Structure formats: C-alpha cells, structure tokens
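It is worth pausing here to work through a concrete case rather than discussing structure prediction in the abstract. The textbook approach is simple: state the sequence, then state the predicted structure, then interpret. We follow exactly that order.
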Amino acid sequence: MREVLDELDRRYRAGETVAVGTVVSTFRSAPRPPGASMLVAGDGTVTGSVSGGCVEGAVYELAQEVMGDGTPVLQRYGVSDDDAFSVGLTCGGIIDVFVERIDTTGFPAFGDVVDSVHSGEPVAIATVTEHPDPSVLGQRLVVWPDRDAGTLPSERMHDAVTDDVRGLLDVGRSGTLHYGTDGERRGEGMSVFVNVFQPPPRLIVFGAIDFAAAMADLGAFLGYRVTVCDARGVFATAARFPGADEVVVDWPHRYLAAEAAAGRIDKRTVITVLTHDPKFDVPLLEVALRLDVAYVGAMGSRRTHDNRMARLREAGMTDDDLARLSSPIGLDLGARTPQETAVSIAAEIIALRWGGRGQRLGETDGPIHAHEEPVRSVGSAARKI
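Step two, the predicted structure:
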C-alpha cells in the first residue's frame, strides 16, 4: 500500500470513498510482490498497480463493485487455460488480490497509520482476507509495537493476531497469517494479510569519493535511507552527494559505533566501505563485522584485500567474523565506471538478500524467483481470465 499511500491519504482526508486492491499472495512468477496495491477513486482515477498491467482492467471493474456495495472480495487471477493472452497473468503466475472499500467511517484509524509512516514509526495493518463468516471479512487491526487500534470479533482472535503482527513488525516483513476461525493457531479457515510499514532500511556509505556518490544515488533509487560518512570535511559535503539523505563528517568507526549504541542500526542495514585506506577501514570493519546487519562490503584490489584481512586478524578478528565480509566488494560484472561499480555492489546486496546466484537467467533452470510459495486453496473461486 505504500505506493498509493499519499494519494489514498489525500482522498481520505477529503472525505472521499475509494477502493484499494492489494496483492496478498503470489505463486510462481507473479509480477508484483505481496503488498503491491492499486487505488480506484470515485472519479475513475487509478493509482498504483497489482500486476504491471496484466489484470488491472479486471481489478478496476471489481473495485467499482466493491466501492458501491462495500463488500470486500478476495479474488485469484491466473493464466487462462484457453488463451494465455486474455486478461490474466501471461507470465504464468497466480496472484490473490483483496479488494476493499476505504473511507473515514470504515477505517477511522487510517489517519494515524499515515502519521506513523511519515514520522518513521513502525506500524502494520492486519486485514481479515478469508473467513467463513462474511461479517468478519475485511475487519482490521492497526498494530504498533506498543499499542493497537480496532477490534476483531473475539478476544482470542484479537490477541493471537496482535502478537503475530508484532513479530512481523520486528523483522519488517509483510505476509499472510493463517488461523482457525476463532484465531486458533493450529487451525484453518481465517487468513489475515499484514501490511507492514517500516522506516526504509539504511545504507551507510563510508568514503567521500566518486564511487560513493554513485552508490548513494543507486541506494536512494533502491529505497534505502542513505548516509555518507567521511572524516575529511573538505570532501564530505552535501553538494557532492545530492543522492544522500545525510552527509556526516566523523571518523567512520566512531560514527558507526555511536549509531549502533543509539539503536539506529538493525538487521536490514547495509554497510559499504569504499575508502580503501587502512587507517579508516580497519577500525571501521572491526566495529561493522561485529554488528548484526544485512551486509558489510569493502572496496579494494586483491592486494588491498589481502593486506586488510591480515590487519583485521592482527586486530583480533576471527575467521567467523571475516567470513561476513564481502571483499572485494560486488559481483563480477566487468564494471569500470563508478556507476557500473555501484550496480555491481547493488547486485551483490540483492543476490545475498534473496538467495540469488548472480548467474545469467538464460543459463539457469527452474523458477526465476526464489522462495516460491506453494499454491493453496482460497475462500473465493479462482478467476482464470
């Protein structure tokens, strides 16, 4: 929903009624991930996408119906057996889209959700997308780490969903939870889609060089909150790094240690060390490699890498510590320019995040996307069109 959040907020505050279709489950080569949303306004305006164009027309028609009668619908879209080029997913994937009406009466806590997202406070919307009782379908809870808003039909249901949503909030992941019809954890019949809104993950780029400027630009494009840090104030200026959210003049190891102590480093944080200067690199990596972060990479030649590893071992780093270091940084793309090198680094980060192998897809077999979900039954009939 994040991609339509601002437009939804504008229309919500104006008192309009809209319909929003959200991808809640994907199977095989689906074009958009869970959480991708499409907003349909009363004037016919469309914002966002659930499939990159494959089924938007069908979702638009369904949204018009839902906006009119207020009854939410969980609908499955997949390839037609007769004609893969009719309205459907030509990629061969399947998506479940939950379409619901949103207005000030039905979703009074939505304004609080938007305020939290804009302030960087973690928040999640939990929506019942499957239940045999039609009156339960579409009911919502808004959950923060320390409070919640909304109600579900039973205390058991409310408590189970709230606890599990906080678990998803902690790891920053959206997803579908499954329960018995009264919230039993070992049951089936009720599905709850949890749309998690976390502050963007951090990318900290150490070293105020041209490669850092390219990395900052690409990091911002990928959705990271980018910090560039260097001890040399003459180079670490906002004018030289327009793609960064902040530019910090400080000794790298001191800055990183302070950020970690303040709780501003988490499991999603990406750290790139581009200084290739031992007096900066070694103390910094001593700190970085002991943190629970997503990625630590360091730039340098093979000779620089070997020298750096020796210095880190002398400083007391273990083999397990050093195994977490991506060095020389990036994938072997034959990159030459700062921009190409930034793509190489980003490719490695993405591959490690999702379990990719960095090979040409044309030379591989099997599913394109890793961690595919098995097809499961849904409450509404699959619509193959």
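Step three, interpretation. Residues 155-171 form the longest helix (17 residues). The chain has ten helices and 17 strands.
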